[in-house]
Write a structure and sequence with these properties.
This protein is an alpha/beta fold and 393 residues long. Helices cover 25% and strands 23% of the residues. Helix 2 crosses helix 3.
C-alpha cells in the first residue's frame, strides 16, 4: 500500500493522472481530505471498466483545506519505475498503518523500524509530520516529542544510527534512506521506510521536503512575488544560480527572476516587450533586449534558461524542447501557465520526452504556483554523466 499527498485544489487533477497512468489502481481518501472526485473534465475519456475502484464510501469532512491524502493499492513496487505525477506533493511507498497509545510507543515503533530496516547504517532522513485536527499546527508538538524520544533512545542504544540521521533537504543520493511517519490522529498513523537506493531512484516522485512542502519565500525588494517560484524551483532541483553564471530571462518584465540572478552575481540577458524595473535596467550585469521572447536565440550556450513568460503551455514546451535539442542551455527553469484545465493534457507528452534530456529534473506544481506547473532540470554533460547539483544559497 502507498500514500500520495496532494493539495485539495489539485485532487481532481491528481486523480485524473492516476486514472490515465494506472487504470486498475484502487483509491481511498483518508480522513482529513475531500472526497475522491471524478476525473478532471479535460482528461481523456476512460472506459468505466478501467476506472479505479474506491475502497471506501462517504468520507468525513476535511480537517484542513490544504492537503489531501490518498491511499493506493496497485502501484508498481518502489524499486520499479513509478508514473510521473505532476500534482502529487509527496509519496509514502509501502506505507503500513500503525496505532500507538503514547509518545513512547511511537518512538519505540520508529526505533524498531530503523534498527531492522536500516541495518547497513546508511545516511537517513526522518519526516515526522501530522495530518489531523482543525488547525494546521495540530500535532506538531506531538511529533517533536516523538522525534526527541527517538533521538534519546538512539543515543542510548544505536549511536551509529543517530550519527547517520540528517535533516537535509538536498536531493537524495544513492546512499540515502528516507523514513516517514504520517500521523492521521494522535494514536494512528502510517509508517514508510524507503531504504537506499529507492529515494534516489525515485527522486522525481519522492520529495526531500516533508509532505513535499516548501515554504514560499519572501523578498520585499523584488519587483513582484514571482521570484518565489524561482527560489522554490532551485530548492526542489537542488541546483542554483551561481556567481558568474550566464542567464537568459525570457518574458522578464517586471524583473523578479532577473533580480534573483543579479543578486546572486550572475550575468543576465533579459528579453521582453516591456522594460524591467528602472533600477534593474541600470544594473551593469543586465543586458536588456526589447522583443519577442520566443524569437531569441543565444549566440552560444548559456548556464540558465529562465522563462516565466505568459503563453499557452504548448508553445512554452515547444520553446523548451528547441533549446534543449540545440544544447542552448545547461540548466533551465520554465513556468507553464494554464487557463482553466484545457492545456493539461500537454503534460502527458512532456513526461515522455523530458526525462532523457535532463538529469535531475522537476515537473511539478510548486507551492508558489497558481494555475501553473514548473519544469526544471539539468542537462547531462556531453559525456553523458549528470552535472553535480549545486545547492541553493
Amino acid at each position: 500500500m502507498d500514500l500520495l499527498i496532494g493539495t485539495d485544489a489539485d485532487l481532481p487533477l491528481l486523480v485524473a493522472e492516476l486514472h490515465r497512468a494506472v487504470p486498475s489502481l484502487r483509491l481511498e481518501r483518508l480522513p482529513g481530505s475531500y472526497p475522491i472526485p471524478d476525473p478532471a473534465p479535460s482528461a481523456p475519456d476512460t472506459p468505466p471498466a478501467a476506472r479505479p475502484r474506491r475502497l471506501s464510501s462517504a468520507p468525513p469532512p476535511p480537517a484542513s483545506p490544504h492537503l489531501s491524502i490518498l491511499r493506493l493499492e496497485g502501484l508498481p513496487a518502489p524499486h520499479q519505475p513509478l508514473p510521473l505525477l505532476v500534482f502529487a506533493r509527496q509519496w509514502l511507498p509501502d506505507a503500513c498503518p500503525h496505532s500507538a497509545a503514547s509518545i513512547r510507543d511511537w518512538s519505540d515503533l520508529l526505533f524498531e523500524a530503523v534498527s531492522q530496516r536500516l541495518h547497513d547504517n546508511p545516511p537517513w532522513r526522518l519526516h515526522l509530520v501530522p495530518r489531523y485536527g482543525d488547525s494546521p499546527a495540530a500535532g506538531h508538538q506531538r511529533c517533536r516529542l516523538i522525534r526527541q524520544a527517538l533521538v534519546d533512545r538512539l543515543q542510548r542504544h544505536r549511536r551509529h544510527l543517530l550519527r547517520r540521521l540528517t535533516q537535509s533537504t538536498a536531493p537524495f543520493t544513492p546512499d540515502d534512506a528516507l523514513v516517514q511517519l504520517l500521523l492521521t490522529s494522535p494514536g494512528d498513523g502510517y509508517l514508510s521506510v524507503a531504504p537506499p537506493p529507492i529515494p534516489a531512484v525515485q527522486r522525481a516522485r519522492l520529495s526531500p521536503f516533508p509532505l513535499g512542502d516548501v515554504p514560499v519565500a519572501s523578498d520585499k525588494s523584488a519587483p513582484c512575488r514571482a521570484f518565489a517560484k524561482l527560489l522554490e524551483a532551485e530548492a526542489r532541483l537542488g541546483h542554483a544560480i551561481q556567481p558568474g553564471d550566464r542567464c537568459v530571462d525570457l518574458g522578464a518584465s517586471p524583473g523578479s527572476w532577473s533580480h534573483v540572478a543579479l543578486t546572486r552575481g550572475a550575468h543576465v540577458t533579459a528579453i521582453d516587450r516591456s522594460p524591467l524595473r528602472p533600477d534593474l535596467m541600470r544594473h551593469p550585469r543586465l543586458a536588456f533586449r526589447t522583443g519577442d521572447a520566443f524569437a531569441f536565440t543565444p549566440d552560444r550556450p548559456v548556464d540558465w534558461l529562465l522563462c516565466d513568460v505568459i503563453a499557452p503551455p504548448e508553445r512554452t514546451l515547444d520553446l523548451l524542447r528547441q533549446w534543449l535539442d540545440r544544447g542552448a542551455c545547461r540548466n533551465f527553469i520554465v513556468t507553464l501557465k494554464f487557463k482553466g484545465t484545457a492545456g493539461y493534457p500537454a503534460l502527458d507528452r512532456v513526461k515522455s520526452w523530458l526525462p532523457p534530456l535532463a538529469d535531475p529534473f522537476v515537473l511539478t506544481r510548486l507551492c508558489a504556483n497558481r494555475n501553473e506547473v514548473c519544469a526544471a532540470g539539468v542537462r547531462p554533460d556531453p559525456a553523458g554523466t549528470p552535472n553535480l547539483p549545486r545547492p541553493p544559497r
